[in-house]
Amino acid sequence: MGLEALKEEITKALSTIVVEPVWAEAAGDLALHVLPGSLKAVAAALKGVGFRLLLAVAVVDEGETFRVVYPLCSLERRLRLILMTSVPRQAPDIDSLVDVWPAANWHEREQAELFGVTFVGHPDPRHLLLPDDWEGYPLRKDYKEPEVYRGISTERPYWEDEGCSRSN
Amino acid sequence: MHYTLRNKLPSTALFTTVDAVLNWGRLSSLWYLLFGTACCAIELMQTGGPRADLDRFGAVFRSSPRQSDLLIVAGTVTYKMASRIKRLYEQMADPKYVISMGSCSNCGGLFDLGYSVLRGIDKVIPVDVYVPGCPPRPEALTQGLLVLQEKIRKQRYLAREA
Ligand code: SF4
Question: Is A68 helix (H, G, I), strand (E, B) or coil?
Fold first, then answer.
């Protein structure tokens, strides 16, 4: 199936949600950029078109915004598609897609603890990897490491000369 | 008990001999905890395997900290893991010894710049022997065990220090 035909089919499936889908290309794959408000509806429509497999959830810190990326896959049709949206840094709230793809559950928990993006409606918004008492979002570009963690100093004596004594 | 004895009684040949026997028993049965946190644990398994054969020196692994004398910290330690390792260490019965195996548990190793990695297990528990390497070869870990045995051989429990 050609890309144009796929675009057309998706455009038709999305016709009630978005007027004109914004197409892009990411790493050689077709990418669809949507507004955060329509994300969940678009996701459900894409699942209807055949994208039943969610491969990952990724977040990119772009300064003023966070880009949230959902690589999708259709095994039956041998197609890949990347769904993207951007949320403002000041209010990084986005709908959870666990209802659409259950695989999003742990991915969203991980991105929430590492980037501080809130997935609204997530059934189990605990930390996944970090300890429960962890403070801050370590993969944000402006993350400042605390001096101590549970009474353990976080200094790096061997890196002081290199100018990267603390991650910043 | 032996601390009070040590203070009250003069150092005698008997106590020195008993010390030597105690130390011999301890250093010849260093049972280590079956525990590893990252890739160094693979090399730890090799050291326990037939070629390096740590059993020759009386060191076999136990799966419970209650039965272990030696904690070999084999691998990267995150802050989250650090509190677990501390608890394992506290669960071990005295006398207990710690070998820090590999760059990661010595000082953070190549993950030194990570936000989640503890820079040296000695920030959490006391360490007897540091084994450098990434990972240390089985020979190096065996050497570390022999060094620890030498250290134990010199310990004094009953006899007073001269
Ligand atoms: S010292 Fe090297 S081999 Fe050992 S745990 Fe660290 S990275 Fe792995």
Answer: strand
Question: Using the beta-carbon criterion (under 8 Å), do B113 and A150 form an inter-chain contact?
Answer: no
Task: Identify all chain B residues contacting A138, using CB atoms and an 8 Å cutoff.
Answer: 115-116
Note the ipTM here. Answer: 0.74
Q: How far apart are CA B63 and CA B61, in angstroms?
A: 7
Q: What is the mean pLDDT of residues A130-135?
A: 88
Question: Cα of B38 to ligand 1 centre, how many Å?
Answer: 7
pLDDT at A168: 44
Of A72, A92, A87, the C-alpha closest to A36 is: A87
Residues of B in contact with A153 (CB under 8 A): 123
With the CA atoms of A92, A95, A97 and A100 taken in that order, what torsion angle do they form, in degrees rounded to the nearest 10?
A: -160
pLDDT digits (tens, 9 = 90+) for B133-143: 999 999 999 99
- Residue in B with minimal Cα distance to A140: B115
pLDDT score recorded for residue A12: 78
Q: Are A134 and A156 in contact (CB under 8 A)?
A: no
**Minimal C-alpha gap between A131 and chain B (Å):** 6
Q: Which residue has the tokens 């009474």?
A: A151
